[in-house]
Amino acid sequence: MKTSETLTEKEITPEFVEKERKRRNLRESLTGYAMISPWLLGFFGLIIGPMIYSFILSFTDYDMLSAPQWTGFSNYVELFTNDPRFIQSLQATFTFVVIAIPLKLAFSLFLALLFNTGRKGSGIFTTIYYVPSIIGGSVAISVVWRQMFGRDGAVNTILDAWGLDTISFFGNSSAAMSILVILIVWQFGAPMIIFLAGLRQIPDDLYEAASVDGAGIVRKFIKVTIPMLTPIIFFNLVMETINGFMTFTQAFLITGGGPRDSTLFYAVYLYEVAFEFLNMGYASAMAWILLVIIGAFTLLIFKSSTFWVHYD
Amino acid sequence: MLRKWKKWATVSLLTLIAAGCSPGGPEETSEAGAGGEGSGKGQTTIRFSWWGNDERHDLTQEMLDLFEEEHPDITVEAEFTGWDSYWERLTTQAAGDNLPAVVQMDNSKLTEYISNDLALDLNTMIEEGTINMEDVNDVYQDMLVVDGNTYAISGGSNGLATIYNQDLFEEYNINLEPGYTYEELGQEMARVSEAEGEGFWGYDFVKADYETFRHYARQFDQHFYNEEGTGVGFEKQVLQDFLTTVTTWIDEGIATPYDVTAEVNESGESMVANEEAAIASAASNGLVGVQTLAEADLGLNVMPTAADGEKSGNWVRPSMSFMISSNVSEAKQEAAAELIDFITNNEEANQILRAERGVPIASDIRESLAGEVDPTVQETFEFLEVLEERAGDPEPLPPPGESEVRAAFDRMLESVKYDEMSIEEGVDSFVQEAEQILNQ
């Protein structure tokens, strides 16, 4: 019923407005995707793509030089039924995680408690104590560690000066494991900072109330600090456990998995299989098993959290 | 509309650049364009990869400059890294059909490249004279010839040897002429370690037991691997005898205990240089490095022999070799051959390289370098002449999977030395494990 003079008005119908809005929305989201496309490309090309490929490879025999041969589940069967070193690497990794991670958490909590007093200068110390966390995973520190615990290294020189017997740290299974545990515990910085943040969030009135009720310092720690801190402990436990299972650099460089495979961590064995023995298919299968193991442990911690983590 | 187009074009271009910059992105985009097509006439570009330390990198690049000067039509792109990352990189390149034209190879890896048809047979090039091998005695190339085909050219040779403390040997009046036996060596070392007291041992196996045993088994006309590469090629009894000698020596204090030897080795030291051992297994070119660590004058000798052995255990081996990748264009293969010939036969090139890769295989190059190189390097030259004369049968290349078998051998040895396994158990389990690995 409109005439030709009102053509512009005709254009601005509700349908037109709706269409225009949709068009803009689409354009905006397209621009958005275009903006993050470098990341998307990286994510699909360098993470998801290789993951899918490695999953496929895990069912093959692949030496990188010739084409992969489909072998079905034989890599997985071989791993669980006919590879004592795989079992040994699981044992070494579990032993390491079970010893090192609780120690590391306890130590970082202890230091966080010390720094939480808010004394002058504690900020500087917090910063200094955080440093090992940054450099501890580096190749340089691993090399230093190897020198320190070597036959003529600093530690043995000190032992010798005190008239004690020197220790062959790399010739003795438990000594080799210990120096790796010490190195990991020494990298307490990250969990310490998170603990510190958690401690600062505990309201003072809780402590005051506890004091009024006659609680001593130990009781306050057990009854107030720990329960209030459980969400933080939970977070740290999950993160550190995941990292613990993937420990590689330190063991690879310091002990090389030795002596007699006693520190052959999962990731070290995986590397050996993949890049020294060129069994890419077998190594891919190992990588997926590691993913399942880490997933299972994380799930276990999450499930157990309902019993010990308090959110309030 | 046009503006929109531009915007999209810019965004996608940026994306491509970002993807190209990220690690794992396509490498060497220039190579395909520069060398691949335009090689018919004019410039040929080849890539040459090697592992090594800074010294080798510098020397090799200097040599390449000279090569390019003399061959203006060839451009060489150098790719060099340390040992560990080298193999990761090379296998990735092989998987991506992107191997360099000239590849520095290790004996333990060459079979894998041959069996996957990645190494070019160089016989035609040698016959045509592109690679001139007239001055090269066959013993230097024996290991690299499989079924009559030459798959690589030795980049310098060495041999299994012993490095000993000459001063100490003189002091104790020890005289071990080539051909000396394990028994003679054991007696002398018992005398030395006894007299020198605690913290001193006679023989250091330097974690080279695997190599030492290969030398031992050869004397009984047995090789470590069988011909088909499906299992071991020695009788269990031979390995048992060898391990008995090793463990007895350790128990009696004649040889260094395992944990000590492992640790000293790991830290890059040498027990002979430290004057904690009198004599040790070594690769003959190892003398150059060990001598710089030592105060005493060191010398080279052949390995001890088994008294009841029938054959010579010695063989000359390439410390590394150069292979030509079979999937580069013919023009590049030709250029690669010229580079290898240059390294093998050019005097100036070898004066630059200073035999750092091992003793040069061409006799006139060895002669021309005599007097120019360090006295210690000269000693390794002379030792190879001794070895050349005493060399036994050619030693075949180890089958694919050698590195894994060797790792298994070392683990077994560790268990035996720590008394976790008897020698019989160790030998049985190792032979079985080796078969399992080689039949994978």
UniProtKB/TrEMBL annotation, chain A:
Name the residues that span the membrane.
30-56, 92-115, 127-145, 175-199, 280-302
Q: Which GO terms describe its cellular component?
A: plasma membrane
Which keywords describe this protein according to UniProt?
A: Cell membrane, Membrane, Sugar transport, Transmembrane, Transmembrane helix, Transport
Cited PROSITE patterns: ABC_TM1
Subcellular location(s): the record lists: Cell membrane
Q: Which residues form the ABC transmembrane type-1 domain?
A: 90-301
What InterPro entries does the record tag this protein with? ABC_transporter_permease, MetI-like, MetI-like_sf
* Major location category of this protein: membrane
The membrane topology of this protein is: Multi-pass membrane protein
Query: Example GO biological process term?
Result: transmembrane transport
Q: Name one Pfam family in it.
A: BPD_transp_1
Q: Which family does it belong to?
A: Belongs to the binding-protein-dependent transport system permease family.
Q: Name the PANTHER family on file.
A: ABC TRANSPORTER PERMEASE PROTEIN, ABC TRANSPORTER PERMEASE PROTEIN YESP-RELATED
Name assigned to this protein: Multiple sugar transport system permease protein
Automatic annotation (TrEMBL), chain B:
One Pfam family from the record: SBP_bac_1
List the coiled-coil residues. Answer: none
Which keywords accompany this UniProt record?
Sugar transport, Transport
* Originating organism: Salibacterium halotolerans
Q: Which SUPFAM superfamilies match?
A: Periplasmic binding protein-like II
**InterPro entries under this entry?**
Bact_solute-bd_prot1, SBP
Q: What is this protein called?
A: Multiple sugar transport system substrate-binding protein
Q: Where is this region: Disordered?
A: 20-44
